[in-house]
Amino acid sequence: MKKICVVFAAGLLLLLVGCKKSGAKVESVPSSQSALKFLASTSWTAGFMDIAGVDEVEIIAPASLRHPPEYEVTVSDIQKINDSSYFVYAGFERMMKTLGDAVTADSKMIKIKCDNSIQTVSSEVKKLAEIFGTQDECKKRLEEYCSVVEQGKNRLAKEGLSGAKVFCNKNQIYLAKDLGLEVAQTFGPGEVTSEQIAFAKEQDFVFIIDNVHNPVGSPLLEVAPDAKYVVWRNFPEAVERGSLKKVIGNNIDFLFK
What we know:
This protein is an alpha/beta fold. The protein contains ten helices and eight strands. Helices cover 44% and strands 13% of the residues. Helix 2 (43-51) links the parallel strand 1 (38-40) and strand 2. The chain is globular. The N and C termini lie far apart (56 Å).
């Protein structure tokens, strides 16, 4: 058994070392994607790549996980990263701590900021598109994404909900603000505190918006029964065309159900 463990550890170390490169600047790629292997850490970073204009992206952490950042890499995952043309990650994934400098110094590695605000999505997908040479397609897909948010904002206005006061999970404030909702206070990602519960009791919230990947806000309903409890997601449930746009559209729909 000790021999097997030693062999496995040695193999893992060789793969990590094999991933280490010179740390050179990421170069732009040809517009044709057929010969390239695009890899993302999670379905969320894959969603950014989709808006950037990239198709056929593979992911490391399964999209079916409730909290994909907690996924731990395997030897075969490391080999996929080593074999990819480009690997996009966010930096908060547990896998990146495991991989360490042996991978993050690699010129194929592209770190992006992940939140679903129009500002962040716009800046990050444009950065990716410049690297991948997909600017024209990115422009069209980004307009589609922004249109979904704008339509949601208009829908709230028609229902008289512009500026509605919300108690929001910290990981979901970005879309709430883009929709014109008033984020009066935040909670999470840890358990709600007694102070937060007392605050919720004193306020007249229209929505309590929680995070499906780590929901902790249900105790707030006990002191704010008139507020509508809505659970939003960030990570798409599948890697597909328009995945992040679908996530945002569904989140908006939950406000009206």
